[in-house]
Amino acid sequence: MSGQQMELEAMADMFNKMVDQCFKKCVAEYRESDLSVGESTCVDRCVHKYWGAHQKVQDILQKQMQAGGPSARPM
């Protein structure tokens, strides 16, 4: 499997997990076909936090790879 294919699958997996987690957290029950203002705000914040955390992890892993492997100290 190519590196691009692996990266695409990893991004799709991250997206699916984010959708699942944010939906479970923000939508308690199905009342209407559209999200309420509160649900929409919750989903927006959840996605922003999830994506931010994902980016921080990616940055740390990239720095470790550039430094020659995992760091010796635990996170």
Automatic annotation (TrEMBL):
<keyword id="KW-0479">Metal-binding</keyword>
<dbReference type="InterPro" id="IPR035427">
    <property type="entry name" value="Tim10-like_dom_sf"/>
</dbReference>
<keyword id="KW-0653">Protein transport</keyword>
<dbReference type="GO" id="GO:0046872">
    <property type="term" value="F:metal ion binding"/>
</dbReference>
<comment type="similarity">
    <text>Belongs to the small Tim family.</text>
</comment>
<comment type="subunit">
    <text>Heterohexamer.</text>
</comment>
<keyword id="KW-0999">Mitochondrion inner membrane</keyword>
<comment type="function">
    <text>Mitochondrial intermembrane chaperone that participates in the import and insertion of some multi-pass transmembrane proteins into the mitochondrial inner membrane. Also required for the transfer of beta-barrel precursors from the TOM complex to the sorting and assembly machinery (SAM complex) of the outer membrane. Acts as a chaperone-like protein that protects the hydrophobic precursors from aggregation and guide them through the mitochondrial intermembrane space.</text>
</comment>
<keyword id="KW-0472">Membrane</keyword>
<keyword id="KW-0862">Zinc</keyword>
<dbReference type="GO" id="GO:0005743">
    <property type="term" value="C:mitochondrial inner membrane"/>
</dbReference>
<keyword id="KW-1015">Disulfide bond</keyword>
<keyword id="KW-0811">Translocation</keyword>
<feature type="domain" description="Tim10-like">
    <location>
        <begin position="4"/>
        <end position="62"/>
    </location>
</feature>
<dbReference type="GO" id="GO:0045039">
    <property type="term" value="P:protein insertion into mitochondrial inner membrane"/>
</dbReference>
<keyword id="KW-0813">Transport</keyword>
<keyword id="KW-0496">Mitochondrion</keyword>
<protein>
    <recommendedName>
        <fullName>Mitochondrial import inner membrane translocase subunit</fullName>
    </recommendedName>
</protein>
<dbReference type="GO" id="GO:0015031">
    <property type="term" value="P:protein transport"/>
</dbReference>
<dbReference type="InterPro" id="IPR004217">
    <property type="entry name" value="Tim10-like"/>
</dbReference>
<keyword id="KW-0143">Chaperone</keyword>
<dbReference type="Pfam" id="PF02953">
    <property type="entry name" value="zf-Tim10_DDP"/>
</dbReference>
